[in-house]
């Protein structure tokens, strides 16, 4: 068995290579101070280490670059290799860059910190590529104080049963974070790496933060859960997604209902400042999408419990709120779209196969839909007075176009059809349905209209037009 240790301390360019007969169980250590340093560490074989945790008895046992405009490249080819064991890889300064390539299986990128500061500080960058199976990126920290440019991290895992996380953290202005996992049974661990981590058999295509004081947390627990993109562009945005179950995010949003939100399938987008989005899914085969464009929008505290449900939220403007939102049951679809400012909407579906869309165009509108039962809303037809009033409008829709409109609908029962529409300002609709196979259509055009209806029992039909 071969064991080699190489230690270099310098302020220059270094190429360190371990190949051939001395390929296994090599240890590479590096300390560079000053500006404009560069280093290449090339290890070919198995169980090699670049950097180990230092202590009083083992000084200079890490990978350290202290200064500005430094660059380091790692290339490890083989199995069971590691970089930065303990807290043993650090770059301190501005405009530093690190590139890591690990080819093989069972490799680990254990720890790295890039830090800089000062009014003139610029970005640090990190690129990690792991090609193989059962590889892991455990902890990455990028901290920038006082500067204006971005810290950048790009992490690419190709293969099966790979893990991203413990902790991926960016602090400072204009951070950029991108994940790409290609393969099966890959894992994204939560921000806090504790026992019982979430994240089995998941894939994330793009996770990005660009701005200041953004927060992002993604947790997936189950098999074949899919997240297409999580994007934050702006300042002080908050994003949280928790998924427990199987094959969530694999299905598209429901046409005409959750898809009417304008959000992309399996994606969370925030463009602007001060936006807040939070979604919890517990079940399987659920679809989701959230899009926020503007400032001060909130769609937090949303929950989906069950299977084959779909929820979509689109907020395009400022200070719009979607809350509370909850789905409990199977095969439900709920979509919200807010175009304007200061709108408020909420919805609750408790049952199966309910289909609802809430659209608000304008400012300071309020709409809530609460359903307990099965098969309400979309997919049902109208007859009688409800058909005459609804015209071409479809069941399951609640729409507001104008300002200061208010709509509230509560349904308890099964197979109830409804459409609620207000066009104008200061209109109000209040509806209560307790029974099954009822139909209700309310269409208001103009200002200061009020409609209040109650249906008790089965087979009632109402049409109101103002």
TrEMBL record:
Residues 1-23 form the signal peptide. The keyword DNA repair does not apply. Keywords: Signal. GO terms for biological process: cell adhesion. Coiled coil: none annotated. InterPro entries: Curlin_rpt. Pfam families: Curlin_rpt. One of its GO terms (cellular component) is pilus. Belongs to the CsgA/CsgB family. This is Curlin associated repeat-containing protein. It comes from Salinihabitans flavidus.
């Amino acid at each position: 068995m071969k064991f080699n240790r190489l230690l270099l301390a310098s302020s220059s360019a270094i190429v360190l290579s371990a190949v051939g007969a001395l390929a296994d169980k090599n240890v590479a250590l590096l300390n560079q101070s000053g500006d404009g340093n560069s280093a290449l560490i090339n290890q070919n074989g198995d169980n090699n280490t670049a950097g180990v945790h230092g202590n009083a008895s083992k000084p200079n046992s890490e990978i350290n670059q202290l200064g500005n405009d430094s660059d380091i490249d790692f290339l490890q080819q083989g199995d069971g290799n590691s970089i930065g064991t303990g807290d043993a890889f650090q770059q301190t300064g501005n405009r530093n860059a690190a590139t890591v390539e690990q080819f093989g299986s069972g490799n680990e990128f254990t720890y790295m910190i890039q830090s800089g500061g000062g009014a003139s500080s610029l970005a640090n960058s990190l690129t990690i590529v792991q090609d193989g199976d059962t590889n892991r990126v455990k902890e990455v920290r990028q901290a920038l104080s006082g500067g204006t440019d971005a810290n950048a991290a790009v992490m690419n895992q190709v293969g099966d049963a790979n893990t991203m996380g413990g902790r991926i953290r960016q602090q400072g202005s204009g951070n950029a974070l991108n994940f790409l996992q290609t393969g099966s049974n890959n894992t994204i661990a939560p921000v806090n790496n504790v026992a019982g981590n979430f994240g089995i058999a998941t894939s994330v295509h793009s996770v990005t933060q660009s701005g200041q004081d953004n927060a992002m947390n993604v947790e997936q627990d189950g098999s074949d859960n899919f997240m297409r993109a999580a994007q934050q562009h702006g300042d002080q945005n908050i994003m949280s997604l928790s998924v427990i179950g199987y094959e969530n995010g694999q299905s598209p949003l429901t046409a005409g209902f959750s898809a009417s939100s304008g959000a992309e399938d399996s994606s969370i987008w925030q463009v602007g400042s001060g936006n807040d989005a939070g979604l919890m899914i517990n079940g399987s085969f659920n679809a989701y999408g959230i899009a926020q464009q503007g400032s001060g929008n909130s769609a937090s505290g949303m929950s989906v419990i069950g299977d084959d449900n779909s929820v979509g939220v689109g907020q395009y403007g400022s200070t719009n709120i979607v809350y509370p939102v909850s789905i409990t049951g199977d095969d439900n679809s709920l979509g919200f779209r807010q175009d304007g400012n200061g709108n408020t909407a909420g919805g609750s579906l408790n049952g199966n196969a309910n289909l609802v869309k809430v659209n608000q165009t304008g400012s300071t509108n309020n709409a809530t839909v609460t359903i307990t039962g099965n098969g309400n809303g979309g997919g049902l037809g109208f007859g009688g007075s409800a058909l005459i009033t609804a015209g071409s409008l479809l069941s399951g829709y609640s729409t507001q176009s104008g300002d200061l409109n208010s709509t509230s609908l509560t349904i308890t029962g099964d197979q109830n059809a409804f459409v609620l529409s207000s066009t104008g300002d200061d209109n109000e609709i209040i509806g209560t349905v307790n029974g099954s196979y009822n139909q209700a259509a309310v269409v208001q055009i103009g200002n200061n209209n009020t409609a209040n209806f109650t249906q008790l029992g089965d087979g009632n039909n109402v049409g109101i037009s103002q």
